[in-house]
Amino acid sequence: MKDLSQIAKKMVAPKKGILAADESFPTIEKRFAKIGISSTEENRQAYRQMLLTSEGYEQFISGVILFGETLRQKTDDGIPFAKILEKKGVLPGIKVDQGAAAMDGSSYEKVTQGLEGLPARLKEYAELGAKFTKWRAVYKIGDNLPTDKNILQNAKDLAQFAKNSQKAGLVPIVEPEVLMDGSHDINSCVEVTEKVLTAVFSELKKANVDLDGIILKSNMALPGKDFVSKATPAEIAKKTVELFKKVVPKDVPGIVFLSGGQSEKEATINLNEMNKIKDFPWELSFSYGRALQDTAMNIWAGKKENIAPAQQKFLNRAKMNSLARSGSYSEDLEE
Ligand code: 13P
Predict the structure, then answer these.
(1) Contact 22, 67 (CB under 8 A)
(2) d(CA 43, CA 188)
(3) In whole angstroms, what is the distance from residue 251 CA to residue 230 CA?
(4) Is 283 a catalytic residue?
(5) Which residue's CA lies nearest to atom 10 of ligand 1?
(6) Which of 25, 31, 213, 262 could form a disulfide with 266 if both were Cys (CB 3.0 to 4.6 A apart)?
(7) What pLDDT, in 10s, does the model give residues 1-28?
(8) Any idea what the Cα angle at residue 164 is, between residues 161 and 166, rounded to 5°?
(9) Domain encompassing residue 76
(10) Atom 4, ligand 1: which residue's CA is nearest?
């Protein structure tokens, strides 16, 4: 599994992180609605073309997670997006889960779908140029939630996804996301995240997944969105690193964060704070969706004349997060 481990290392190379541009149809529709444009195939192609053909982001971005449709799309000049990435030395990745559906017997909890027919899809994605995959499970904190049943089912499915990806020669990004929704405090988030990750690593081990050929994608330890106060970056960083040290094996080459509803700046500041700690065995990096795209998407707003300024904003966000990879970011470096 030497190749997998090399790809995984490249995904979390120093100074670089991953762009999550794998919004599913319902998600991209929601994001586009905010800028007043409709989610047509043409608009999705134009938007992803704006991002992927930007100049210079390859200095800060090691890989891009794409949605199935995007992996098959081309630029206006007929070049497949995967080729554009390859030319830049950026690894193309692909979201392979098919979203979360209600768990049997529960109106509150969800289990991620997509194991059926997965080996055949993985084979096709590899042929289209993908080097890594992603599968996201979601957990909500609430009264008696998440349940053990939900944690176990999602962990087993994440492990099956990871095993299948490795068999297909693709590095799995294993993403259990404890959501920020709710009014819980930071310690509840730490407790639930620790429990979820313990179950995930136990199932990965049972499924004989090579840990040096995966990337973990996690939430940070954060209070819920509706909690009375925010936590300081220092507290977030300390609690997140401490919890990872308890449950994430050192064989895992890197942990990348999702932004999960943090603002662009918060996501950068918190990552920077973690990397100032330095005393941990993995690379701590980013795999942000909204926190790399929000400003760029707003400026683009579906108009050709806005492409250049939007690309500039995307490049700047990627650069700020690249600095946060080594704890060298500071707010006065912002434009
Ligand atoms: P956000 O950074 O917007 O949370 O998206 C990252 C992601 O890939 C969620 O699956």
Answers:
(1) yes
(2) 40
(3) 33
(4) no
(5) 136
(6) 262
(7) 679 999 999 999 999 999 999 999 999 9
(8) 110
(9) 2-333
(10) 260
